[in-house]
Amino acid sequence: MSNHSEPTSFAFTAENLEKAKKVIARYPAGRQQSAVMPLLDLAQRQDGWVSRATIEAVGTMLEMAPMRVEEVATFYTMYNLKPVGKHHVQVCTNICCLLRGSDGVGAVAQEALGVGWGETTADGMFTLSEVECLGACVNAPMMQINDDYYEDLTADSTRKILDALKRGETPKPGSQTGRQFSAPEGGPTTLIKTGEKA
């Protein structure tokens, strides 16, 4: 059972309405429905999630049947169809991350936060989600927290990140082992210096 009340209406703030109009203007006349994904994202950034009222408002704005907007919102996991905590912790459990230990990352996250998959902490600070590929396979295992990626995780680094967030700190995103972008573990092996062979 849901512990939130569904809003009966949605409206973009004046600032976000201007942003929405700019997004719609990027598309040729008659193709404004192509803006459905960025408008859903904008709405979610405003309210934290996409409600039924949001779906209907975006549909009206784009002259699109609400069902068509809902099809997009329910297909992509990036849209939250119920409220989430201040920190939305999304742990990738797809094959690359699983092979490199995401089961341990997920277990530590559940233990550290005291919630299971799809649940939100009582204080509303954290929601824990199990998600499919987030596209950082080479730096697996990884988790996304809001817009930040945390990669090359271990059980220990996962706990440190979550504990830092609990203290109100902002942990450094990216590789937790110091890896440079997606270079091999141990560092780059080619193009180290001009004229030098690896």
Output the keywords.
6-stranded mixed sheet, Glutaredoxin, alpha/beta, Arc Repressor Mutant, subunit A, 7 helices, 6 strands, 2 domains, 198 residues, single chain
Summed up:
It contains 7 helices and 6 strands; from the N terminus they run ααααβααββββαβ. It is α/β, with parallel strands linked by helices and 198 residues long. Helix 2 (36-47) crosses helix 3 and helix 6 (102-113) runs parallel beside helix 7.
Give your account of this protein's structure.
This protein has 198 residues and is an alpha/beta fold. The chain has two domains: 14-75, Arc Repressor Mutant, subunit A (Orthogonal Bundle), CATH 1.10.10; 87-175, Glutaredoxin, CATH 3.40.30. The chain has helices at 14-25, 36-47, 52-61, 66-75, 95-99, 102-113, 155-166; strands at 87-92, 119-120, 126-131, 143-145, 148-151, 174-175. A six-stranded mixed β-sheet has the order 2-3-1-4-5-6, covered by helices on one side. Helix 2 (36-47) crosses helix 3 (52-61). It is globular and about 50 Å long. The termini are far apart. The model has no long low-confidence stretch (mean pLDDT 92).
SSE arrangement:
Layout lengths: L13 H12 L10 H12 L4 H10 L4 H10 L11 E6 L2 H5 L2 H12 L5 E2 L5 E6 L11 E3 L2 E4 L3 H12 L7 E2 L23
Helix pairs in contact: 1-2, 2-3, 3-4, 6-7
The sequence of SSEs as H and E is HHHHEHHEEEEHE
State the domain count.
2
Total strand count, please?
A: 6
| Shape summary | globular
Largest sheet: 6 strands, mixed
CATH topology of the largest domain: Glutaredoxin
Q: Mind telling me which CATH architecture of the largest domain this is?
A: 3-Layer(aba) Sandwich
In round numbers, the mean pLDDT is: 92
Strand order of the largest sheet: 2-3-1-4-5-6
Q: Can you tell me the CATH class of the largest domain?
A: Alpha Beta
**CATH superfamily grouping of the largest domain:** Glutaredoxin
Helical stretch tally = 7
Q: What class would the helix/strand composition place it in?
A: alpha/beta
